[in-house]
Specification:
binds magnesium ion; binds adenosine-5'-triphosphate; Rossmann fold; Helicase, Ruva Protein, domain 3; alpha/beta; 49% helix; 5-stranded parallel sheet; 4 domains
Length: 460
């Protein structure tokens, strides 16, 4: 098996020969060049994994060649060969990005170990790269399913935002509407794709930890700070920070976050030096942030800063064409995953899907399909494969005064109907939102979300 390709650039014929002999025996492919120009040419043509580069070359300095190689490929692994005792040059080349150096005359065994170590770095990088491109494929635009007017508009917006320079984006929507998915798609479809996507759940991080996690700390900043620690912001430099459940971030941290966004710099805890970062911040919440601002739980200035590009993910209810499209998408996905061949939804199941209000949105729909496909072995998903709440919508629909609502000849605005129903539910329950939500088979969040949309919150 081929272990790796090594380019040796050295003017000493004997040394080239001896390296070729020794390293080929170990299973490496060795190519050689006797001067800088030839070396650079071979580097570009043959793309070796490692370059062994002499500092003293007949036509130019190895340092210049190192510079050209690094310009071509920042990640290239170059081991410098220096004159014995020339530490200054060695240090200089390391600063320029050389992987390591060996002094002439060198010990072949030591060199072999160094090369193996360098190759491990190469293969690790390849793995990371493959891993990243696999993830990137998983989170392309095509993974966001929906062709309703609402979703078409949102997809357009996401496309524009991903390729823009926008550094703050706010995702709002009920639970299960796709905020996580959209955040990842925006990252993996942006030029930041090769940099990290840092998923930070503001609820999961305990208050005491959040600042040291985000900003890092200097050695000695507090009793336990035995070592300097870089924070998540620093580690994500060039990439995207996804601040999920942003409404749960405490006020003092919000103030610091605002500063990072505005100045693009921050200090580690206990530090005095400003550290610059290039970050895209995507914040997400299923709370109604304006209300959190009103209650004093969320800083207004941060709200406006994040809201520069707001993306509001619509609840699933009412998007009929998306419900069935998503259902058949998930059937396909689970067919592949479970190696099944389910054809789709039975007609009655489609009807139940269209009538059900989906308080848990797309996540709930996905789970319902997954469950049916794991538990049942039929060609089509039948109503009896569905959980009880879905199973009974059809029946409820029949026994409920559904027939009292009829569309007038001139048409009707569905939002007016929704608003009216919400008002009625609130009146019937004397403003008790939990009860009103139950009456409408909505979650409380979903109800509040709609109340906000229809301007009913202030009155409540
Ligand atoms: N438009 C969509 N197309 C395909 N799959 C989707 C879509 N929206 C969401 N999903 C899938 O639905 C599930 C729930 O979505 P996601 O986790 O992004 O929701 P969320 O808005 O972050 O919810 P929460 O507020 O509870 O965190 C995920 O498996 C996601 O891949
Ligand atoms: Mg989420």
């Amino acid at each position: 098996m081929e272990k790796g390709k090594i380019l040796v650039v050295d003017d000493e014929k004997l040394l080239r020969w001896s390296l070729q002999q020794n390293l080929s025996k170990e299973g490496f492919t060795v190519i050689t060049a006797e001067n800088g120009a030839e070396g650079l040419e071979l580097f570009l043509e043959d793309q070796p994994d490692i370059v062994l580069l002499d500092v003293h070359l007949p036509d130019t300095s190895g340092i210049h060649i190192l510079e050209s190689i690094k310009k071509e490929n920042r990640d290239a692994i170059v081991i410098m060969v220096t004159a014995f005792g020339d530490v200054q040059t060695a240090v200089k080349t390391i600063k320029m990005g050389a992987y390591d150096f060996v002094e002439k005359p060198f010990n072949m065994e030591k060199l072999k170990i160094l090369i193996s170590k360098a190759l491990e770095t190469v293969s690790l990088r390849k793995e990371v790269f493959q891993f990243r491109s696999q993830i990137a494929k998983k989170y392309g635009f095509s993974k966001i399913i929906g062709r309703s007017p609402e979703m078409t508009r949102i997809l357009d917006l996401i496309r524009k935002v991903a390729s823009s320079d926008a550094t703050t984006i706010m995702l709002q929507g009920e639970s299960g509407t796709g905020k996580d998915l959209v955040a990842k798609v925006i990252h993996y479809e942006s030029s930041r794709v090769d940099k990290p996507f840092m998923d930070i759940n503001c609820t999961a991080l305990p208050e005491t930890l959040i600042e040291s996690e985000l900003f890092g700390f200097e050695k000695g900043a507090f009793t336990d700070a035995k070592q300097l620690k870089k924070g998540l912001f620093e580690l994500t430099d060039g990439g995207t920070v996804f601040l999920d459940e942003i409404a749960d971030m405490k006020l003092s941290t919000q103030a610091k976050l605002l500063k990072v966004i505005e100045n693009k710099t921050f200090k580690r805890i206990g530090g005095t030096k400003d550290i610059s970062v290039d970050l895209r911040v995507i914040a997400a919440t299923n709370k109604v942030l304006t209300e959190e601002v009103r209650k004093g739980n969320f800083r207004e200035d941060l709200y406006y800063r994040l809201k520069v590009i707001p993306i509001e993910l619509p609840p699933l209810v009412g998007r009929r064409e998306d419900i069935l499209l998503l259902a058949s998408h998930f059937v396909g996905e689970f067919n592949r995953e479970f190696k099944k061949d389910v054809r789709g939804l039975a007609k009655e199941t489609e009807k139940a899907f269209l009538e059900y209000p989906w308080p848990g949105n797309i996540r709930e729909l996905k789970n319902v399909i997954e469950r049916a496909m794991i538990l049942e072995n039929a060609d089509y998903i039948l109503p009896e494969h569905l959980p009880i709440e879905l199973h009974s919508v059809g029946l409820k629909g029949r026994s409920m005064p559904g027939a009292q609502i009829s569309i007038p000849p001139g048409g009707i605005n569905i939002e007016d109907v929704e608003r009216e129903l919400i008002k009625q539910a609130l009146e019937n329950t004397k403003g008790n939102q939990t009860k009103a939500a139950k009456l409408l088979t909505l979650t409380r969040d979903a109800l509040r979300y709609r109340m906000q949309k229809f301007g009913l919150l202030e009155k409540a």
